[in-house]
User: Fold these one by one.
Assistant:
Number 1:
Amino acid sequence: MGPILNLRILTTSIPHSLRALSIVSFAPAFILLLICGIASSRVNPAIGILPMFFSAAYSSALLANENNCGCRAAGLTGTPLHMVSDMLCGTGLLVCLILGWVSMGSWGYEGVPLIIGTYGTNFILFNFGVHAYFVLKDVFDAFQPGATYPNACRECQYMSFPRISVKFHSDDEHDGYKPLLDGEGRPTPAVNAEEAV
């Protein structure tokens, strides 16, 4: 098993660096915002943990997909789905950021919770900037002549996000299980009526 955080990703490209920093910034933001919420006994700005989590999870999913397929930055940005996802993450971050600043402004001077909350909102502001960068880049690229929207790279089988297949049941025998009835509701020939009771 490799290292949890590969620092080489920070020098790969701007999209890689921004997505990786979006993931890395979640841990200190979580700690600072949680301490602020506990110390002040208020929800704002600690509620900013939620959009920070979704931002980090979205960036993690994109980097993991890019790592699995072996492509270089093709799945990190550039499709309408990415733009909408970045816009939703950025909107959530901006709403929590504004609500946090407004609520902290009404506290007056409360010392430690105000300072910790301010430091915590810096991470929210950074992640908002990351998502705003990707949205503005996609909008700017869309207005270029001859703009096209790739589904993704060939290595990703033209997918923006990985396919997840979940199999809930199987028609075959599984771990010794044999169905008692066939598809029409009759007992299967291999089942003896005395054994079924």
Note: The mean pLDDT is 78.
Number 2:
Amino acid sequence: MSSGILKSLLGFPGSWVLVLSSVLLTIAVVTFPSAVRAARRRLNKSPIPVSVNYFFSRKCNKECGFCFHTAKTSYILSQDEAHRGLRLLKEAGMEKLNIAGGEPFLYPNFLGAMLRFCKESLHLRSVSIVTNGSKVTENFLKEYGQYIDILAVSCDSMNEKTNIAIGRGDGNNVKQLFRIRDWCRKYNIKFKLNTVVCRLNFNEDMFDLVNELAPFRWKVFQVLMVCGENDSEETLRDVRKWEITDEEFAVFCDRHRAIPAFIPEDNKVMASSYLLVDEYMRFMDKGSGKMVESESILDVGVEKALSQVRWDHEAFLERGGIYDWTKEMPVPQKPTAKELAASGSLDW
């Protein structure tokens, strides 16, 4: 609206209108900083980090032979700095946080505090965790389940010998899967499965197992090579002996496509469609096959750091990156007349 129109509507001199406009703009910037930043991003057409995968630690208690996020460091941010980074991401537009690793449940106190912060302070629409399942306990889910929308558990085989050969198994994987599935139902958490298809399991039939577990989503990934992480004898893991062809991945997918929860992702889909943040709060880009890191958002902010990597948000949308990621809240039951009378709340 022009100052002339404002002047005619308000009856103020033009200079007053300019002062008033300046004051209102200042109030907007101070009072609604996240809204102003979001508007600026829309004008600049920079992507909004709506869904973020945070690898807060690289430490893991398993040794999966194909892992592409290996324990090259033992670094972990302080709780306060991690929360500061998450707040910056929220202000930049984050609605969903997926917590991965490493193994998140190796740090139950850190993880629990982060879950509570994300829901009670940031009010994120969705918070999920990816875990190998070995350290998940019912006591943890009982205490923190109210802050968890989705719990994704890795399961690469129903054959324990295969799980052990991959480096994930201890002979108890499948039993633990069913325990976690039951706990998720008990504490109103959406249960999800993740499977990496590799040389050892691409011929396996997991149809009956997955149907019995009944996850709300089953993500099936083609094993992925990332330079500097798992591509040679010089790296902590060497994926080359685990790799499969696109055709072999398709064979596995065709065998399981009738499962309603089935969602396949080959290497092309995985490459740049995930927005990844590492233990230093740096964005990671593995789209070129080599891991590239931005500066830390703690130092330069989200927008600048995000501009330093390639995130294909169109591919993110095309692979179904936005879905029903919030758990269903239980419907409150109306108390009976007997219960009201017992509590003294029934006014006769």
Note: Confidence is low (pLDDT under 50) at residues 5-10, 17-30, 36-44, 331-348.
Number 3:
Amino acid sequence: MSVFKRIIIFLIKLYQYSISPLIGSNCRFVPTCSNYAIQSIEEKGLLKGAYFSFMRILRCHPFGGSGYDPINKNKL
């Protein structure tokens, strides 16, 4: 795993353990957006994973979808 991927995943985990407990669980999807980001970066690489994570976060709003939304291995 590249250094950049490790740094980004570390920052996401830092968010999960320090900030997320303070604001509560607000994600509309399973897995949560932060877990989705980690999985997509690990499976797709940093750029594609960041893109998928960004698109997922854009869908996470009251008028967006919700429910089970796994990483699709066939995308891109």
Note: Residues 49 and 55 are 10 Å apart (CA to CA).
